Amino acid sequence: MREFTIGKNDAGQRLDRFVAKNLPLLPPALLQKYIRLKRIKVNGKGSKRDVRLETGDILQLYINDEFFDKPNEENLFLTVFKPQLNIVYEDENLLLVDKRPGMSVHADETEKVNTLINHIQAYLYQKREWNPKWENAFAPALCNRIDRNTGGIVIAAKNAETLRIINEKIRAHELEKSYLCITVGRPKQPEGKIEGFLLKNEAKKEVRFFHKPVPGGKTAVTLYRTLESRGGLSLVECRLLTGRTHQIRVSMAEIGCPLLGDGKYGKGDVNRRYHETRQALYSYKLRFDFPTDAGLLNYLKGQEFTVENVPFREKYFPEIPS
User: Fold this and answer.
1) pTM listed for this prediction
2) Cα angle at 265 between 262 and 266, to 5 degrees?
3) Which of 16, 57, 147, 262 is catalytic?
4) Can 10 be counted among the known catalytic residues?
5) Among the CATH numbers 1.10.8.60, 2.40.10.240, 3.10.290.10, 3.40.50.720, which is that of 2-68?
6) CB atoms within 10 A of CB 107
């Protein structure tokens, strides 16, 4: 329990607004709930949220200590009152979460709170599986990233050993990730391999494709398979043999079939015609191959997980089976 004594400079403020200003990590919905439950008292009694505070009033807050901390990158998860997660799979070591398009995986210059990692940490905190007060260093962490406007499976590690193993397996290409996308046009070859070199321009945040090695360029190999074509659009499955920034988007554009909705590498007139503002790309399938030992995660060997509801597939190719 913490107490505040209202001074003359704070007098006249509403109770809920005073608490919100002094406890910025306390989610607004949780603040209102605590007032209703009388866990926030004025002069020893429960009070309404819109009561005006007076000089000398004593506020008693029966609230977890974490909410009294100062906001920083490590505790922003506390501001998420009701985590919004579509969990594909969960066990004691990891979570597989279907990230919705539009959500950032980590904090960036445009979003600090409503990120996937904050939702995951809030979820585990509220389940009493993790508390930053218990740990010296480790916090639940993401093992892979997906662009803000791309949806699909993201792996979150609940402990340091899982994070280490999954990172090793990703580097060793022992996890198979498959993507669905909708392309503008039909690939000339129904299926094939796109090989080249990708060079990232950090200033422009875009990537260029080269057929020959270039200074700073990284090898990129993408396998693709056309599942269906109709009305100038194609449903294509892609599998990454390398994991480069914007790899599928740039590679499909290079063969003349950019992704529908892609504002950076796509066709603006087609995107506007279909009213699509996000690239139609989804990391919909994950398989744990594990040809080598995976330690405490050996039980995942050979398991495959699939997102059943890929929004753009339902919209443009609803009869194509998952």
Assistant:
1) 0.85
2) 55
3) 147
4) no
5) 3.10.290.10
6) 15
